[in-house]
Write a structure and sequence with these properties.
Shape: flat
Distance between the termini: 38 Å
Number of helices: 8
Number of strands: 0
Radius of gyration: 22 Å
Oligomer: single chain
Helix content: 55-70%
Order of helices and strands: HHHHHHHH
Largest sheet: none
Number of domains: 3
Length: 184
């Protein structure tokens, strides 16, 4: 990882030794919420974080696949592994594969057949209209719309967390308490 502006001393590497083991998700969540906001504001770091977390997840899934399906066969080469995947055709547990999405589609169709057609709500972020977000981004002058818009653009993670918090409150108040929804 090469982010000299984010890690000026080179410390805090994910692969470094530490007392307690952490996951990639925990590591990047901590950095994105770092108090000075430099990780959340960086234009490329969030993509690097997502890519690294997805690679770690894929690596763990691959290890679990080998351990569960072929215990004691740690000597397999990459070509052997590709041959096994081609023969077995069980890719439904690997996120993103065609078999995975076909399995998820079948689960959804079964759920609709059992529960009936759903009512779908979508939510969008009116992040330039929220006074709470304006006070977080521009505490000195929350009425300055241009500064607030620039603050949202410069710190999208803060707007995302604010949106998530508002949605959680809305779901609790409206879906659970008013509509008595069970699946959401």
């Amino acid at each position: 990882m090469a982010f000299p502006t984010l890690f000026p001393t080179g410390a805090a590497d994910f692969n470094g030794t530490r007392m307690n083991a952490i996951t990639a998700g925990q590591y990047f969540t901590h950095l994105m919420k770092y108090d000075d906001g430099r990780f959340a504001r960086h234009p490329c770091f969030c993509f690097f974080a997502l890519n690294t977390e997805m690679r770690c997840c894929a690596n763990e899934m691959g290890q679990v696949y080998i351990i569960k399906r072929h215990p004691g066969e740690g000597h397999l080469t990459v070509d052997d592994f590709h041959d096994m995947i081609g023969r077995e055709g069980d890719r439904a547990s690997l996120h993103g594969t065609r078999q995975y999405w076909l399995r998820e589609r079948n689960h959804l169709i079964t759920m609709i057949d059992t529960l009936g057609l759903p009512t779908i709500f979508t939510h969008s972020a009116a992040d330039h209209q929220w006074p709470e977000l304006a006070h977080l981004i521009c505490p000195e002058d929350p009425e300055d719309k241009q500064a607030c818009v620039k603050g949202v653009i410069d710190n999208p993670a803060l707007a995302d967390w604010c949106f998530y918090y508002r949605i959680q409150k809305f779901v609790d108040a409206f879906y659970l308490n008013t509509l008595k929804a069970t699946d959401y």
